[in-house]
Design goal:
By secondary structure, this protein is α/β, with parallel strands linked by helices. About 30% of the residues lie in helices and about 20% in strands. The protein has one domain. The strands form four sheets. Strands 9-8-7-10-11-13-12 form a seven-stranded mixed sheet, with helices on both faces. The protein has a two-stranded antiparallel ribbon with strand order 1-2. A two-stranded antiparallel ribbon has the order 3-4.
Length: about 300
């Protein structure tokens, strides 16, 4: 005899999440009832390419931060992530690799081959909020990647310092690199811009990035900032975005891996570079999984 008092299971609530694989092979985790796709028509801004490109992709909304999270709490959380990143072997080895690119090891002067005048960050994700209607939590990944972005920025801004003005500047210049990196606000310069773009950024994310001297921009502004003198920081950029970015021949790329992506554009760029894989990051291995630092030695005319 059936139990008339038993509640029937709601088929909608039972469907907790879905994995949606798009045409580019990327898998997105989302709730089944809220995913939607639209056709976006974008026009390339380059004078050499004015064709319209039709793209079908999920509409990404700003990540949902916990209701009671304040900026002060988020900032304190970030300091903890940054401290672990700065102390890691991954950062120590990456800093040496960057220094080798920036400085001529024989003359101990700035390398003439490396002419980088800014950083563009694509696909960082949200340091404060949950993605895909709250089903995906990659805040720790974004925090560590943001710490990497800030320390990389500090290496470049401390390498291309303006003329010394006072005694405190001299003391800072003579300090070890690790101390310079930890100096809050040290050597931040508007002449070395850092642009960050991701549709999932919320107000807290924007406030955090801007407090670190970065400029948060909306799509497609960051795409237009990539030149042959750019360091492209793209830990979460999708393949179709790399197809748009890499023809600009950025001088350095931190991301990937770019090899074996089944994209002729990405493969062509990778073949023109030399690269070093990052040491595995033990605190959060997925934050820099198989990522490489790519250096484009020469840009074709």
């Amino acid at each position: 005899m059936p139990h008339s008092g038993r509640k029937k299971r709601n088929p909608v609530s039972a469907q907790k999440r879905l994995e949606v694989t798009d045409d580019d092979g990327w898998t997105h985790v989302t709730s089944g009832s809220n995913v939607r796709r639209v056709v976006r028509t974008t026009k390339a801004r380059s004078d050499r390419d004015t064709d319209k490109v039709d793209e079908t992709e999920p509409v990404l909304s700003p990540a949902e931060a916990p209701a009671r999270l304040t900026f002060e709490e988020l900032e304190a959380q970030y300091r903890g992530y940054k401290e672990r990143w700065v102390q890691s072997e991954t950062w120590q080895k990456l800093r040496v690799q960057l220094d080798q690119r920036i400085h001529d090891q024989e003359t101990e002067t700035l390398s003439q081959d490396l002419n980088v005048d800014g950083i563009v960050c694509i696909g960082l994700g949200s340091p404060s909020g949950f993605l895909r209607d709250g089903w995906v939590d990659r805040r720790a990944v974004s925090m560590y990647q943001l710490a990497a972005l800030e320390t990389i920025k500090d290496v470049f801004t401390s390498s291309f310092l303006p003329p010394l003005k006072n005694h405190s500047d001299i003391q800072l210049r003579l300090s070890p690199p690790s101390l310079r990196l930890l100096c809050k606000g040290a050597n931040r310069s508007s002449s070395f811009p850092i642009y960050a773009q991701d549709p999932v950024f919320n107000d807290l994310d924007r406030a955090l990035l801007e407090s670190l001297g970065m400029t948060v921009v909306n799509t497609p502004v960051a795409f237009e900032r990539v030149t042959s003198k750019t360091l492209l920081f793209c830990p979460g950029a999708e393949r179709k975005h790399l197809d748009m970015l890499l023809p600009s021949n950025p001088k350095l790329v931190l991301g990937g891996p770019l090899e074996n992506t089944e994209s002729s554009i990405i493969q062509a760029y990778a073949e023109k570079t030399d690269s070093r894989i990052l040491v595995p990051f033990s605190a959060q291995e997925h934050a820099f999984w198989k990522m490489r630092l790519y250096h484009l030695a020469q840009v074709e005319a």
